[in-house]
Amino acid sequence: MIEFKFDGNGLIPAIIQDFDTGEVLMMGYMDAEALKRTLKEKKSVFYSRSRKKYWVKGESSGHTQDVLQVLTDCDQDTLLIRVRQKGGACHLGYRSCFVEEVGEKGELRRITQEKVFNPESVYPK
Description:
By secondary structure, the protein is mostly beta strands. It has helices spanning 32-41, 119-122, and strands at residues 12-18, 24-30, 45-48, 53-56, 65-72, 79-85, 100-102, 108-111.
């Protein structure tokens, strides 16, 4: 197996990209076990730094990611995971987490997408 360069917490950033369009959907963290599961299960498995546990993208929302290809950069310290996204990737209801355009002064200029689902109906409090 490749000698991935995990950080001091045993994590590696994983950028999630739509296989067909090239759109960057989200970024999460994986440890060795999450990466192993992602490769085996062909579903995106992440390690939650705040909850200290594994989670499979879409396990509560149904907005899953079918993993088609896993790439690493030349330093083996970042992953690029190419997926077919079902529904939205963002927990706020957007297809992508990268929807907030930042202006020259660091201000939020605008949201660049429409929501594809209502997060209040998917993630009840």
